[in-house]
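Entry 14. Structure prediction run on the chain below.
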Amino acid sequence: MIKAKINTRDRILELLKKEVSLSVNELTELLNITHMAVRKHLIVLENEGLVKSTETKQSMGRPLQVYSLTDKGDQIFPKNYEGITLEFLRDIEELHGEKSIQLLFERRENRLTQEYKNRMNNKSITEKIDELVNIQNEKGYMANVTQLDNQTFELIEYNCPIYSVAQEFKMACRCETEMFKNVLDTDQVRRVCCKTDGDDHCKFKLKFN
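Output returned:
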C-alpha cells in the first residue's frame, strides 16, 4: 500500500516535469484515480515543498488552480554536474580566453560522438533514433521521440542535466546539436526550442532524406 502511494507521487512529479503545469482534473485523467486521491498526494507533495499551486484566470467561472514543480521538486531529477564544474570553466575562460572553452566543448563533442556512434553501428534510422533516446535517458535527459512522418522525428528532452553550464556557455547546446547530426548521419537536425532560452523543454526536429 505504501509502495503504491510512493509510485503515484513519483508519477505526479514526472507528469509535472513533462507538462510543466496541470490541474487536478488533468492529473485525475492521466493517473486514472479519484480527485480525492490526487488532492491527498498533492497536499503531501506541497508539504514537502516539491510542488506549488497557482491560480489561472479562465474566460468563465472561477480561477483554475494548477500545480507545478518548485525549484526543490525540479532538483530531484537527474543532474550530473556540480557547481565546481561551472567555476572551473569560468576560471579557464578568465585565464586562457574564450577559445580555450570552445576547444574543451569541441573535445567533449568529439568524445560523445564516438561514444554514441559505437552504439549505433549497423543500425537502421529508426534503430538509431531509439538508441539515441536510450543513451539520453541513461544520461538523465528524460528524452522521448515521436515520428511525425516517414522522414521526420521530434525529439524532446524534458530535463537538462547540464542546465547551469549550458545556461552560461551556450556552445554546449550548439555542440549537442552538431553531435546529433554526426551520430545520426544527417545535416537536418534543428533545435526548435531550448531551456536556456526560457522554453520549458529542449526540442529537436530530426529529418532524413
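Residues 55 and 65 are 4 Å apart (CA to CA).
Filed with the rest of this week's runs.
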